[in-house]
From TrEMBL:
InterPro entries: H3K4_H4K5_MeTrfase (IPR050869), SET_dom (IPR001214), SET_dom_sf (IPR046341), Znf_MYND (IPR002893). This is MYND-type domain-containing protein. Keywords: Metal-binding, Methyltransferase, S-adenosyl-L-methionine, Transferase, Zinc, Zinc-finger. It comes from Hyaloperonospora arabidopsidis (strain Emoy2). Pfam families: SET (PF00856), zf-MYND (PF01753). GO terms for molecular function: methyltransferase activity; zinc ion binding. Residues 43-81 form the MYND-type domain. One of its GO terms (biological process) is methylation.
């Protein structure tokens, strides 16, 4: 018996609904991608990310971590290798290559079942909902896909269709494929660092709808997608996961969902935020907020909410506790300074660390984002992961304070939802604390050692429970 079944909702469309009560931790889906493409930094077969990858000597685009992985991928890559060789690497975006692979598999290969083909072709493409500019991009990329397909290797029994023949037969189908990929493909990510490893189309996974307080999460093992529930789910209850970063304000989440997936989110979390009474503390204040710098009679402790006037220019920035206003021009100036450091292209570990330090200083000391601000959490996570992966042991020892800052920024939000990112954060903190104790046993007093050991154990316990 399947753990879930499909239901057609008059407002949402297709939904995945639990067929029976599911305890937290239950795996409800395990499925492989119809097609997937790795990012330039990961293996095209197993999707492992590593510094040293060997390029395919034929096309110079596909990359592999080992000879074994190259051999495993050859049954697929043998048909496309000569075609991929004809395009510059700069034009070989993962989306373009994914649509090309899908088009070949769906329309030119006999090694796909009718059921698997229909599972892709029945996905919504929302082609007419995309902007005219986006449709023009799809149209341009479709020409390149058709060109690549005309250069694919054919089997002995096949005749290679010309570009003109493919354009007549497949142009509209490929345009729709771009729409389907844009709305339904998943970013395949590293479960620890959240590093993008590639993209893939998982038709079974596309059945699950979005919620800003989801009851399930998605993870990946190479080309395999897994869905686990993170809350107890009752029979008949919809199973959902999040399509967007949850550490964003309601407006930011709803805007991204509307722009990328063409629906207005009406989940309980969004509705609660939109209906909150005036004067009541809102999650959104903190997710986008700044620290109040008014200190007459002591530190205010309030949160400054920024309202934009035009574009990205600050209209007003007022503390919700004391009513004092921060200088909008100063905020704009620091935001521009922050963007200038984000745009830097650094080529060494040490220079990257220096750039991270500058960005962190601007965020926390000059711009003074609130400690619960979603950008603080994201930046702390990025820096912490960078330091953990550094070759320098001196840099690796600096990671813990950034994970502490991330935990402070996220632990208050959706406290009852066992988010995997939060579990991994506790694991990283516990692991770093143990390593710190092992590497410098004589630097702490006995009492401090016991205290630190207890903290490390607590973090690891929290990680396991999550």
């Amino acid at each position: 018996m399947s753990l879930y079944h499909e239901v057609l909702d008059p407002l949402k469309g297709r939904c995945a609904v639990a067929s029976k009560a599911l305890p937290a931790g239950s795996r409800v889906l395990q499925t492989f991608a119809t097609s997937a493409v790795s990012s330039p930094s990961s293996c095209d077969s197993c999707f492992v990310s590593q510094v040293s990858l060997s390029r395919c000597t034929g096309c110079r685009i596909a990359r592999y971590c080992s000879r074994r992985c190259q051999q495993l991928d050859w049954p697929q890559h043998r048909w496309e290798c000569q075609a991929w060789r004809s395009i510059p690497a700069a034009h070989a975006s993962p989306t373009l290559l994914l649509v090309t692979r899908l088009a070949f598999k769906l329309f030119r290969s006999s090694k796909i079942t009718e059921e698997a083909r229909n599972a892709v072709l029945t996905l919504c493409h929302h082609l007419h909902d995309h902007s005219e500019k986006k449709r023009q991009v799809f149209d341009d990329m479709t020409q390149l896909v058709l060109l690549l397909l005309s250069r694919y290797k054919a089997s002995a029994k096949q005749q290679i269709p010309s570009f003109d023949e493919l354009e007549i037969d497949l142009k509209m189908e490929i345009l729709k494929l771009f729409g389907r990929v844009n709305c339904n493909a998943f970013s395949i990510a590293n479960g620890v660092t959240n590093e993008a490893l590639g993209i893939g189309l998982f038709p079974e996974g596309a059945l699950f709808n979005h919620d800003c307080d989801p009851n399930s999460i998605v993870s990946f093992k190479g080309r395999e997608m897994l869905v686990h529930v993170v809350k107890d789910v009752a029979a008949g209850q919809e199973i959902t996961f999040s399509y967007v970063e949850l550490l964003q304000s309601t407006q930011a989440r709803r805007s991204e969902l509307k722009e990328s997936y063409f629906f207005d989110c009406e989940c309980a979390r969004c509705q609660a935020a939109l209906k909150e009474e005036a004067g009541k503390v809102k999650d959104d204040w903190y997710l986008d907020g700044l620290v109040c710098t008014h200190k007459e009679g002591g530190v205010c402790g309030g949160v400054v909410v920024v309202e934009k006037s035009t574009g990205y220019t600050v209209g007003c920035a007022v503390c919700k506790l004391c009513g004092c206003e921060r200088d909008g021009e100063e905020i704009d100036r620091y935001e521009k300074l922050l963007k200038s450091f984000e745009a830097l292209d650094v080529d060494s570990e040490q220079r990257k660390w220096e750039a991270y330090q500058q960005r962190w200083k601007i965020m926390t000391q000059q711009l003074q984002l609130h400690p619960r601000n979603g950008r603080v959490a994201a930046m702390a996570r990025e820096i912490g992961n960078f330091l953990c992966g550094a070759t320098s042991s001196d840099l690796r020892r600096l990671a813990l304070p950034f994970f502490v800052a991330e935990l402070h920024a996220v632990e208050w939000l959706l406290p009852k939802t066992k988010l995997p990112s939060r579990g991994l954060l506790h694991f990283q903190m516990g692991k770093l604390m143990f390593e710190e104790l092992e590497s410098s046993p004589g630097t702490l007093s006995r009492v401090d050692q016991v205290d630190r050991l207890g903290s490390a154990a607590n973090h690891l316990h929290e990680s396991l429970s999550t």
